[in-house]
Amino acid sequence: MAVNKIGLKDKPVIELADHLNILLANYQIHYQKVRGCHWNVKGHHFFDLHVKFEELYNNAQLTIDELAERILTLGKAPVATYAEYIKNSSIKEITTEGLSEEKMVEAILSDFKQLIELEREVIENATENAGDEGTADMIIGFLRFKEKTSWMFRAWTGKN
Q: Ferritin/DPS domain: from which residue to which, for each copy (predicted)?
């Protein structure tokens, strides 16, 4: 089996890059959802949630860039169109206009749950199949952020 430029075997790494592209597509849909929540939040928690949603979409934007660059490092091209994002994402778009604060937070928690599941699959794929500790380490950082933020949002909803 051929070895790529960073010392990993080609076939498992190409499969890992495909898996990362699925994660990237999900992040793109999540990113836009959080932007919509940021723009459309109304209610008693406006100031807190408006700032928090901005923090989340800024974090997602950085994560998206890291994912795309890792996919390129592994020798593939990242998906880069909304058609590809929608096709490859298990996270679905929602309309945030008129959505209550609680429903927005629930939507973000649902996205986080799906992203966490995907990230755990990527970590397993990276370590067990591709021998790619670099990708696993990167994804573990993303995972920790979402686990902590999920706990905080669950505390906010009172559904801890």
A: 18-158
Q: 52, 61, 73, 74: which is closest to 24 by C-alpha?
A: 61
- Residues 6 or more apart in contact with residue 11 via CB below 8 angstroms: 1
Q: Please measure the distance between the N-terminal and C-terminal CA atoms of the chain and give it in whole angstroms.
A: 48
Q: What is the CATH number of the domain that holds 152?
A: 1.20.1260.10
Instruction: Check whether 1 has a pLDDT greater than 60.
Output: no
d(CA 86, CA 89): 5
Copy the structure tokens of residue 116: 């966490």
Q: Which residues contact 113 (CB under 8 A, 6 or more apart)?
A: 150
Least confident range from 31-40, 60-69, 94-103, 151-160: namely: 151-160
